[in-house]
Target: CBS domain-containing protein
Amino acid sequence: MLVKEWMTEDPIVLDENASIMKAVQVMKEHGMRRIPVVRDGKLVGIVTDRDVREATPSKATALDVHELYYLLSEIKLKDIMTPNPIAIHPDETVEYAAVIMLENRISGLPVVDEENHVVGIITQTDIFKVLINITGIYYGPWQIAFEMGTQPGTISELVKEVREKGGRIISVLTSYEGMEPEKRRVYVRLADMPEEKFKELINELKQKFNLLYWVKDDLSQIPRKGETTKSPEALEALLKI
Model:
């Protein structure tokens, strides 16, 4: 998956000589946390909501309103921005962008063309969307995890077994993190099916593979802001070991 398929295209940018007051207004109006800063249309910096907070006088300031507005209109973005920010190109992979963000502990990257013009921005939220897309959780609630060897044919055998028992596979993902050499974890997500039929499938898979766990994700029970989260007992009931 390429960055250009998931980035926000034509993001709002501000000139380096724009005031901090302008940045505050733009962030508030558009719910933004970072703004690319340009000079002659080319990326030279980035300003985040944290930069703005640190440059803005605290509520305890002795300045009156007129003095405060004057100060905010005089401070330029070039004075508070992070210069020469890390950027990425639209034809690079989303995985590469995610590694850059993780290694540098940043939550977003400007996307630039060959001439360093800002053509997009990709954020952690976009990475989450990619994760949801490749796992297929919206299309299948069941996830089954296995520990398997890396020899050819092992996943094909698993897929064949699942299909023969009536399971419809949405996605198959593998991970080598924390595993012994020649071992891997395999995560299979299935479309919904009657619980009795699913239990029969699990019993069959236990006979032939090293099954680690299975869980059913209930998207109707997603916590929302301001709501009480699930109790430990409710979470435990969802996870079958």
Q: What stands out?
A: The chain has ten helices and twelve strands. Residues 195-208 form the longest helix (14 residues).
